[in-house]
Amino acid sequence: MKIGELSHRTGVNAHQLRYYEAQGLLEAERGSNGYREYDETALLRVKQIRHLLAAGLSSEDIAYLLPCAIGEEPELIGCPELLAAMRERLGRLDEQLAKIARSRDALAGYIDAAERTGAKAYPPFEGAA
């Protein structure tokens, strides 16, 4: 099938499909006319990629673990390299969550301090929502 049909059948635009190919996530043959030609396995592969992206994995992570993917969701075979990559990604997400929590706490503290020092006595800032 050509890229337009794969796009239609998966709901993923052609630009993204070309990106997946450039990242080594998706393979296409080239017809004599130079057009990309995908086989039926590309449908499953695109669904796997979409699920893994939704889990917050990078295209680099996905390229590494796709060989361990089975089924649409996908189910991943627990090889040591795969588990190490997923644990590393989970660690990065935990670090991001901690940073966001610190930022939220700091902002809440500034709001509390401003309210306690009489910020209500001043006219509202015009840029405030």
TrEMBL record:
The cross-references to InterPro entries, in alphabetical order and at most eight, read: DNA-bd_dom_put_sf, MerR-type_HTH_dom, MerR_fam
- HTH merR-type domain ranges (all copies): 1-68
What is the name of this protein? MerR family transcriptional regulator
Coiled coil stretches, renumbered: none
Q: SMART domains under this entry?
A: HTH_MERR (SM00422)
Keywords from UniProt, A to Z, are: DNA-binding
Q: What SUPFAM superfamilies does the entry give?
A: Putative DNA-binding domain
Which Gene Ontology terms cover its molecular function? DNA binding; DNA-binding transcription factor activity
Question: In terms of domain of life, where is this protein from?
Answer: Bacteria
